[in-house]
Structures are given as C-alpha cells and as structure tokens.
Specification:
Layout (H helix, E strand, L loop, with lengths): L4 H6 L2 H19 L10 E2 L9 H6 L1 H12 L2 E6 L2 E6 L5 H6 L4 E2 L1 H12 L3 H4 L3 H6 L7 H25 L4 E4 H18 L4 H20 L1 H4 L11 H11 L2 H4 L7 H13 L4 H16 L2 H14 L1 H17 L14 H5 L2 H14 L4 E5 L3 E3 L6 E3 L4 E4 L2 H4 L17 E2 L2 E2 L4 E2 L2 E2 L17 H18 E5 L24 E6 L4
Parallel strand pairs: 1-2, 3-9
Antiparallel strand pairs: 2-3, 4-6, 5-15, 6-9, 7-8, 10-11, 12-13, 14-15
Helix pairs in contact: 9-10, 9-22, 10-17, 11-13, 13-16, 15-16, 17-20, 17-22
The structure holds protoporphyrin IX containing FE.
Length: 502
Amino acid sequence: MGRSPLDWLLLGPPGLAVAAALLLLVLCLRARRTRRPGEPPLIQGWLPYIGVALKLKKNPLGLLKTLQTRHGDTFTLRLAGKYITFILDPFQFQSVMKNHKQLNFHKFTNILLMKVFSINSLATNDGLNDKLHLCYPRLQGRFLDTLMENMIENLKQVFEPQLLKTINWVVAEMFTFSHSLIFELTFITLYGNFPADDRKKIITELRDDFLKFDDKFPYLVTDIPNELLGNVKSIRRRLIKHLTSESFLKTQGKSEIVKMRQDILEKDYALEDTEIGAHHLGFLWASVANTAPTMFWALYYLLQHPEVMAVLRDEIDHLLQSTGHQKGSGFSIHLTREQLDSLIYLESSILEVLRLCSFSSIIRFVQEDVTLHSATQDYCLRKGDFVTVFPPSLHLDPEVFEAPEEYRFDRFVEDGKIKTTFFKRGKKLRYYLLPFGFGTTMCPGRFLAVIEIKVLLIALLTYFDLEIIDKPHIELSFSRFLFGVQHPDCDVLFRYKVKSSS
Ligand code: HEM
C-alpha cells in the first residue's frame, strides 16, 4: 500500500528530508518554463532560480561558445531568476535597435541605478531621464575641446608632485596606480578642484571610498541585500555626502555638463540633497569605472611589449617636436584634438585593448512580446524577459579579427588611417567594435574616455621610464561580466622614474 505524504512526515527526520526534496523537485518543475513556438532555444539548467548562472560565472566565454555551437547565434538562458536572450550574430544587432519601443533601455538601468547608487527619482519622474539626456551634448563638440584643455591643464597638478619625487625608481601596483590617475583626473575635470590646502586629503579619501564601493559593484547589481555586503551602505552614504549640493559648492572649475545636471536636479526637479548626490555618484561611477581598467590594460600591454612602446614613443615624440614642444622644458603638453587624433597607433592600441577586455553587453528589458526579424531567422521574445546584444563574441571572432586572442596594437590601422572596414561571411560589418554600446543609448563619454587615456599615456611615455617588474600571466577576472571592461585577476608590479632628459 502506498504511503500518504503525512505518513512520510511521521517517519521522522529521514522522511522530512525526502518530503523536502520532493517539494523542491515540484518547485523546480513548476519554476521551469516551456519554450513557445518561435522562441529561441531555451537553456534553463538544473538549479532552480540560479539556472546556468554558476556555469556562466565559471567560464563565460567557454559556455557561450559551446551553446553557440549547439544552438546557434540566439538562445535564452535562465540566469538568477531572469530569462536573458543572447544575440551573438552581428548582423542581427540592428534588429534590437529597430525595436527600441518594445525593448526598453531605461527600465533596466533605472532598476540598476536604484540598486547600486540608491537613485530613486528616475523610477517616479518620467521626464527626468530625457532631461538628463539633454546634457550629453556637453561631452561633445566645443564642450569636449574645453574639457580636453582643462584635462591637460589638470594633468600638471596630478603629475607634478610625482615628477618631483621620482628621480629614483618607484615601485607601484599597476591597477592601483592607473585607477588613482584616472579617478583624480576625471574628478577634478568634471567636478572641479578643492581648495589647495585640503585637495590631496579629500581626493585621497574620496578615491579610497570609491575603490571600496566599486569593488562591491558586482554584488550590488544582484539581488543580495546590501546588509550582507559589509559596510557598503555607509561607504555609499559618505560618497553621496561628498557630492551633495553643500559639498558641491566647495569645488572650483566644474565642467558644463556637471553644472547643467546640477541645475536640472536642483531647480527643475527640486530633488533632495542626498538624491542629487546619488545622481552625481552614478555619473562619477560611469566616468571612472570603465576608464580606469581600460587605462590599466593599455599600460599593461605596452609594458609587456617594449617594442610597441618604442613605436608609440616615436609617434608621440614626432608630434610633440612638430608642434613646438621643447625637450627638457619641464612638464608641458599643449595639443589640440586634431593633433591628438593624428596619433593613430596610440588610438589603435587603445581600441585593441577595448576589443580584448570590454565585456559590456547592450541589455534591454522586453516590455511587450515582440518578434525580431533578421535575414536568417525570426525570433519571438517574451514580455518580462531581457535581451542582450553581446559584442565580445564579435570582438573575439576569428572570421572578423585574425588571431583574436592576440594583442596586436596596430590592428586598427590601415593605409595611415584608423581602419573601419571589417568583414564577416564576406559582408562588410556595420558594427565591429562596440565597447560603448550603440544607438541612442551609446556611451556619451566615449570621446572623453579615449582622450583621457591618450593624454595620460602621452604624459607617462614622454616623461617617465617605465618597466614591468614581475611578468605574471594575468587574466580577465570576469567579475563584471556583461557590465563593462573587466578588471585583471591580480595586480601587477611595475616601476617608474622621471626620464633624465625631462
Ligand atoms: C573606456 C571607458 C568607457 C566605457 C567602456 C563605457 C561604456 C559604456 C557603455 C557600454 C554604456 C551603456 C550603453 C548601452 O547600453 O547602450 C555606457 C553608458 C554611459 N556612459 Fe560610458 N563608458 C566609458 C566611459 C565613460 C565616461 C568617461 C563617461 C562620462 C564622462 C561615461 C558616461 C556614461 C553615461 C552617463 C552613460 C549612460 C547613458 C544613458 O543614460 O543613456 N562613460 N558607457
């Protein structure tokens, strides 16, 4: 005779364990969903809720490659309670852009901004996103010229104390070094400078807090409660306090974009001070969090390849001499954007690093059921899911980039210009490098980011001798998979000193 569930429970702990296992199994089966006709292949994994998240975390590229071979260029994964459709065929990317009404960017980012920076106003103020978008032209055109001039001027302040001190070799950790330079230069260029007496102390405190906060970023984007993430809440509160209107007034020389954002948040929307600070933290994070690791990888690859460093030094020296910069006349760089643009090998080396290390994906929330059409196949996407265009599979595609795993600093140079034509299946690609996203939501700070890395590399290569000390085999850590430029899995020691001729 069969036993009732009650009988099992009455059998004591072993019975309870079996009952719990059965209950779990029922929950697993209920939580699994069935693929509807027209939907992409569905990979749910066996773990309830988690799906294939752990597998993806362990070996992201390996798993996606295996799934691509097995299921084709489009498939849906269950990841930590969400269903995300990956689109890997570059000729299908356009279909996501075309359906921007059904595939919403801000629905996704608003949740993220709330979770990570505790920005609450975007979910309730419909027009605020559009208003803030009106500020982005202040990162382009003549505003970009001014930002660049100020950045070069600020370089002096960031470098001069070091220049004076480093007549002998100084050993440093490369990631920490790159992050410090980017943080300080970005902060003072966008948010202005503090009075001289407090400057170093405040910037150091801010930078240390920012680093600790950024370390927690991969956890903040998950559903893990903030309370389980150490002191992240108090660090965020301190950072926000530093960026509230009250502290804001203390800095001199703010950029036009930051002033305009402040006006909108303060005057048009009369937001509370902490909410304004949270918005500034979000913007500061966007301007530093990807630029700093890009700077690290750009420097790392150069120091690993002294022959490349020599080519770039030559290119830079040539430009500096032809634009009247005198050797041995102290720290002075004055360049226009056109002159900076003429450094094509330097630019190509930065693009190459973005190709190898950026794992930003373009994520959209599916607001209503929609069919994506393409030349090869149509796919139905389900309301409530997410869809992501995943550029790394393109960046590492051997059909597009020969030996894609190799660092080739001049990969983006052709006939003395930046190369823009790449092919797949014999067809010219509209999109071949997408570290900054695409379409209307494309990163508004992309020009400033590249300028900043260029001027920092120019300063480092011109005024310093640089050598890598240990040559460990470092890898991408993948802790920010889907969310931008990856950090290295460990830091690297290098040494620097001022060149004797500077
Ligand atoms: C190497 C450095 C950088 C990388 C790789 C990068 C990458 C990205 C990506 C992938 C997006 C999302 C695009 C999308 O989903 O369509 C984005 C958005 C954004 N980025 Fe950047 N970024 C960098 C530097 C910067 C800088 C320097 C700034 C500011 C000065 C900035 C400001 C922003 C802002 C404000 C957004 C949100 C745009 C929106 O709301 O539509 N970024 N960035």
